[in-house]
Protein: Short-chain dehydrogenase
Organism: Gemmata algarum
Amino acid sequence: MCKQPFGHAHHFYDALCPACAAHNFANRTRATDLRGRTALVTGGRMKAGYHATLKLLRAGA
């Protein structure tokens, strides 16, 4: 991100400056309405693919 030095760690993103951490944390739960769309996910049974699949399903894909 911005690589600014900081002294106070964010409660979730401890490696980011407070401004970047707040921005990322606010966007963490954003979602788009995907009803009526089809998504193809490969590797959806493990790790990042699994979480991406869940997020797509919750968005309506």
User: Anything to note?
Assistant: The mean pLDDT is 90. The longest helix spans residues 47-58.
